[in-house]
Amino acid sequence: MEQSTHDARRLIVVSNRLPVRVTHEEGKLRIRQGAGGLVTALAPVLRDRGGLWVGWPGATGPGLNAVCRQFSKDAGYLLRPVELDDADVAGFYQGFSNEIVWPLFHEFMLPCNFLPTYWEAYRRANAKFSAAVAAAGRPDDFIWVHDYHLMLMAKQLKEMGKSFRVGFFLHIPFPPADIFLRLPWRRQVVDALLEFDLVGFQTLKDRVNFAESVRRLYPGSRRKGRGQVVSVSSRGRQTRIGGFPISIDFQSFVRDAARQEAVAAARKLREAFGNRFVLFGADRLDYSKGIPERLNAFAHLLESSPELHGKVCLIQVTVPSREEVPMYRDMLAQVERLVSGINGRFATPGWTPVNYIYRNLPREELITYYMAADMCLVTSLGDGMNLVAKEYVACNAALTGTLCLSEFAGAAMEFHRHAAMINPFDVEGVARAIREAMDTPAAVRRRHMRALRDILRRFDVFQWVDSFLMAAFSKRLGDFPTKDG
Ligand code: GDG
């Protein structure tokens, strides 16, 4: 019943970036579908309903609308580019989004730069996205807004006289109230979020944090319901809030990891490392991912366990990110210093402790590393979910690997029973987890990996889309069915 209600509606997805890569090649604009779980999960839904994706293409120039139209024809759903000017990019994207919301929501106070001009730019840019939706939307469309760049849209759409049903999903954590309430524009942000019909968070912890901020700002607010989706009412308005842990297209990773080429490449990679225990990490270069902490823990392992020299190595893939922000440039220098410090100190002929890769690998290559690694290190200091953890599990059909997972990643909520859980700030604890994994009998590893894969098989990204949409259209609160009911 519920399914048919939401199936009937056209969907408009809104995200800061369109799910495409637009590049200038030989003086012309080229457009390609971006990678990533979100677009994989949403593209078929958009195609089925004749939907629309609204966002910033990242590049601009004459011919942009034409390449978007061409892409729309091929992809089966429409792209609606929102053009941002340099001032928007500086104040809204680099400023408010990346120098305020990103650090604050990940509980890093020091990088926060609470410039009032950033707030103005944020409002202005959000209004551009809202205007694009207002112009393209039909009254019975469902608008699904993604992430922290666009928290003001439901309110702005109402101010524009539009009464769409609007849902929001936050991909990053929602911080504890004592952190969130330091935001100078906290009331405006909370008021705007409460204008959505449904606000989705990665975990119940994020939902609880949000509800607590609402309660602190509006002591008269009330919570109703139990389970995955509850409602908060404040000043006469009811908003549904829920936990919807995002996932990956599990079967596509399983398929790609089963390809003959992938199996052969993983075998070759393993041979290159011999009998060594291979640790693996892959992250965007971001302070929330705990890369220096991971390197420090690895250095501690080598320092405290000389018998492991030559027997263990770390492959660290770091993907360039936000290179225009000074703090990210500083972090790159810090990571490179740490890597060369470890290698300089411990390397011997034939053994390089840290294999450092600073580029975006093609997906097939990333999968090869996932398949070959004995342990994946996810040491986030804060993370909405962490899809690397899930992709590693999906690629480990051989059931030989161990997932080492930060208790501060959203994925911990689902995976904590079967991963080696660590506090990323505790170098001794992380080093211990690595040593223990090296000594864990194969049968125990298999059991845990199988259990992790069972969780992922049931909760994949398609189930995530379904449960969010069902919750958005249902009148009831509580839990929303999974793929198998
Ligand atoms: C935000 C939230 C939340 C990494 N290296 C390469 C590569 N990757 C891909 C992985 C994965 C993605 O990047 C990273 O996803 P994460 O979830 O780990 O992190 P964020 O980018 O910070 O994402 C996060 C997510 O939104 C979804 O809601 O889980 O908490 O911060 O898919 O595969 N991909 C390729 N080459 C690489 O070298 N091709």
TrEMBL record:
GO MF terms held by the record: alpha,alpha-trehalose-phosphate synthase (UDP-forming) activity; trehalose-phosphatase activity
InterPro entries: Glyco_trans_20 (IPR001830)
EC number: 2.4.1.15
Gene Ontology annotations for the cellular component aspect, listed alphabetically: cytosol
Superkingdom of the source species: Bacteria
Broadest EC class assigned to this enzyme: transferase
Pfam families membership: Glyco_transf_20
Signal peptide: none
Example GO BP: trehalose biosynthetic process
Alphabetical keyword list: Glycosyltransferase, Transferase
Family: Belongs to the glycosyltransferase 20 family.
Protein name: Trehalose-6-phosphate synthase
Protein's gene: otsA
